[in-house]
Fold these 2 entries.
Entry 1:
Amino acid sequence: MSSTTPDETMPCPCGLGTPYAACCGPIHEGKPAPTAAQLMRSRYSAFALGQSDYLLSSWHASTRPAELELDEDTRWLRLIIDASDQGGPFDTVGTVTFTAIGRTPAGRFEQRERSNFVRDGGNWFYVDGIEPA
Ligand SMILES: [Zn+2]
């Protein structure tokens, strides 16, 4: 498994324009994401950086796959958070609707998903997602 060593000063892949070290970097290193939307961003960044261990550890145990193989041919270009509902510091559930834009050798694609998150023991976790209507 290959994973990119993140450059701490690069703009965070999640697209907020903040350096990685001040955005998703600390969350990848174990700092709890304060909101479901930030956990969503950190998971997108982990996809972009090939950090499958983080993707598994931020996946709720009830739905977590045994292993996760990332497609090496996919390059993630951009994340757009379309909507988020609940998922705040005082909530225990939240949903985030997003569009992730990527590219494979076959061309550019968009993936839309409405993801469900739960807060468990002070940390947000990804549960599952559906394609929004
Ligand atoms: Zn980020």
Entry 2:
Amino acid sequence: MLTESQVREILGNLQEPFLHKTLAELNAIEEVKIKQEKNHVSVKIDIARTGTSEQLQLQTHVVNLLKEAGAETVGIRFGQLSDEVLAVNRQAEPEQGKNLLNSESTTFIAIASGKGGVGKSTVSVNLAVALARLGKKVGLIDADIYGFSVPDMMGITKRPVVRGEKIIPVERFGVQVISMGFFVEDNAPIIWRGPMLGKMLNSFFNEVEWGEIDYLLLDLPPGTGDVALDVHTMLPSCKEIIVTTPHPTAAFVAARAGAMALRTNHEVLGVIENMAYFESKVTGEKEYVFGRGGGDKLAEELNTEVLGRLPLDQPDWNEEDFAPSIYQEDHKLGKIYLDIAEKVAGLLN
Ligand SMILES: Nc1ncnc2c1ncn2[C@@H]1O[C@H](COP(=O)(O)OP(=O)(O)O)[C@@H](O)[C@H]1O
Ligand SMILES: [Mg+2]
């Protein structure tokens, strides 16, 4: 049969998830009650932030530990650590607060579109690679949680490794990449809903070891639904690039994504017109197969500029180092991406 002091000893060594000190050090075990006849242990523990996924994890730990130690059933309540305790212990924490979301040296650039299929992911991966080719330190978050495609497009076969409490992104073509695809078995569909998504994205910011980066690009979910809005709201200061095709109706739909960016106080850096034309390799003639003028119309509406126009074309595929969607540096589109990257870097200087 467990005693109160045994329970305190067992739980005292657990880490408080936000302050990274033990529960004993923080005096965070507020109450221990033991019902001998039912072999039931109930505890009340204070943590820095209740109602979080960290709380859930800690809860699982506590229950497991107490059951291993012999408790039949476990009751657990969480309370809030006092402001005094929080203040004292946050100060004592040297590395705390080194949150990427607050990092001044990193610029967030979200790539948005009005709808799927316009090449948002293609633009995201190639712009990231182009910025890296310019010598910038670049990260890329595949924030299209349901429709992740970045790992396949970049030909990433490795998975991230975990070091300590941090996930190390996978590097490819000089870009640090993180994607939901890394955490899903066998391409299984994802059925998570909104709140989970927010947690996932938060983890991408806080639990990933980004190191020093200049630009963190986000391949946003398409459209202007809840998911896209969540991401917009989550990033306090973020630049945006809107991708559209040249078709006037596509630009019309994309304008809504632009409006969402502006409503959440995100500065629109410019518009990228993708699938702008098809250029005949034989005659060099340009055919505007998806219409014309969409990019200009959108830029005008959003009071910004067209950063570049990409024709229809595929990368040269390399069997040894396969990355189906990455254009080589000397490819016609690779060069256009370099121009766009230079413009973007110039705008952010
Ligand atoms: N400029 C382009 N030329 C040829 N194919 C392209 C071009 N841009 C995108 N694609 C193709 O169009 C499809 C949709 O692109 P994707 O980047 O996945 O769009 P989104 O992320 O907006 O849904 C992909 O198969 C991609 O390879
Ligand atoms: Mg996509």
